[in-house]
Amino acid sequence: MFSGDSYEGKVDFNTDGITVTPDHGAVTKVDLANMRDAVFARMPENPMGMVPPGVFLTNGSFIAGTVTAFGAPVVKVGASGISVSGSAIAQVLFVPMRRAKLPPPAGGPTGAILPNDDFFTGTVDGMRENRLQINSI
Q: CA 79 → CA 35, 64, 126, distances in Å?
């Protein structure tokens, strides 16, 4: 929080912010505009070592959910359409992927990892009809 406050507990996302429910005490509603940073427990490994669709943020966080809109300056994630600034996104997963195949987020060329594991270099321009548009020129 920009105020210096911190909250710990079960986190529920909704369209106007998050709700934090501690083990003991009052439930707290937090407006995302007032949140400086969020730290969540490490995402559990599933038996197959797969990471679900979602977005990895530049601060290391992961938001699981289907990307429903992709375009500058905002990406929408999940059924509730969580808005994420494009500049805060390091990687987007449109399909489940083995954690071992994910490249570490780093500076360098932008583009997409294709189903055959090839990297296609280009600038992501958005989505149309559930297809990612990439400009390779």
A: 22, 10, 19
The single-letter DSSP state of residue 9 is S
pLDDT of 17 > 70? The answer is yes
What pairing do the DSSP bridges indicate for beta strands 17-21 and 10-14?
antiparallel
Note the pLDDT of residue 31. Answer: 82
The 10 Å CB-count burial string (b at 16+, else e) for 94-125 is beebeeeeeeeeeeeeeeebeeeeeeeebebe
Q: Is the peptide bond before 44 cis (omega within 30 degrees of 0)?
A: no
Residues contacting residue 38 through CB under 8 Å, at least 6 positions apart? 11, 18, 61
pLDDT tens string 89-113: 888 888 888 877 777 666 667 777 7
Are the C-beta atoms of residues 127 and 69 closer than 8 Å to each other? yes
- Confidence (pTM): 0.58
